[in-house]
Design a protein that fits this description.
Length: 273
């Protein structure tokens, strides 16, 4: 643990069964940011649901499912901001849902790449078949997320019992490091495919290609931030300043899901029969 232990004089610690001795966030969460997050993801969820029905892109449903998880996470942050930032349950809920949600966004991106490979020709993906890309990286994300959630739960438990959370933080760090590595490998495969298929994709999918790459890089930026944040430890500079959360967690993920609202794959990626 590094940095100063944070308490908020505006929220006297009630000392209840579910309260930590400090505010684990390292700050009192912004109510406005939490409400904005829940609202933006709610609107995006509605739009994605309508678009999925319109274009019959059921393969892209992981994205609105991820948005629903984000909504739950930001509602929990709002409760932390208004009711009690010391409450461990609110902290664990918001952390769990905000950490897990991008796994569904990644799965949607993997699915889109699989659909693009099928649409332009499997010869342009020399290393892995479309189904292999989907399943390998989804399994990697599931493993990474399970490890992260376990680590986060152990951190909450350690804080509630006034114990050292270093071991739990290291478990969380391992999950994030694996996720950063696996998504980097995916980005390499995506770059290889787009380079090989650039002449074919340029005729029908060029705007969507830029959108896909932008969204993927935004999700990757968020994952790298989480890795750096965890590496610093609880109460480090990145974890104890909400501006970093807002700029490197909230903003990239919101932009990624809204990019797909504007450039929806159902409009740009041909159906493969």
């Amino acid at each position: 643990m590094s940095g100063n232990l944070y308490v908020d004089p505006n929220f006297p610690n009630p000392g209840g069964e579910n309260d930590a001795s400090i505010i684990i966030y390292g700050y009192t969460p912004s109510f406005a940011l939490a409400v904005l997050g829940a609202t933006l993801f709610a609107v995006s969820t509605l739009l994605h649901t309508v678009q999925a029905a319109r274009y019959r892109t059921w393969y892209f449903l992981p994205l609105p499912i991820g948005c629903v998880l984000e909504i739950v996470g930001y509602i929990a942050r709002a409760l932390s901001a208004r009711k009690s930032p010391y409450n461990i349950i609110y902290f664990v809920i918001q952390y769990f849902f905000i950490v897990v949600a991008p796994v569904f966004f990644s799965a949607a991106i993997y699915t889109v790449l699989s659909m693009m490979i099928n649409a332009v020709g499997r010869a342009y993906s020399p290393f892995l078949r479309p189904k292999a890309i989907l399943w390998i990286f989804v399994v990697c994300d599931v493993i990474a997320t399970v490890v992260q959630v376990a680590g986060a739960a152990m951190i909450g438990s350690a804080e509630s019992k006034r114990k050292d959370p270093t071991t739990a933080n290291n478990i969380l760090l391992a999950g994030l490091a694996f996720q950063v590595f696996s998504f980097f490998v995916f980005l390499v495969l995506l770059a290889v495919f787009l380079r090989r298929a650039r002449k074919v994709a340029a005729t029908t999918m060029m705007p969507f290609t830029f959108a896909l790459v932008s969204a993927a890089l935004l999700v990757y930026l968020r994952t790298c931030f989480r890795l750096a944040e965890t590496a610093q430890g609880l109460m480090g500079q990145l974890s104890s300043r909400e501006v970093y959360f807002g700029c490197l967690e909230f903003a990239p993920v919101v932009l990624a899901v809204w990019i797909f609202n504007v450039w929806h794959p159902g409009k740009w990626v041909p159906r493969y029969n």
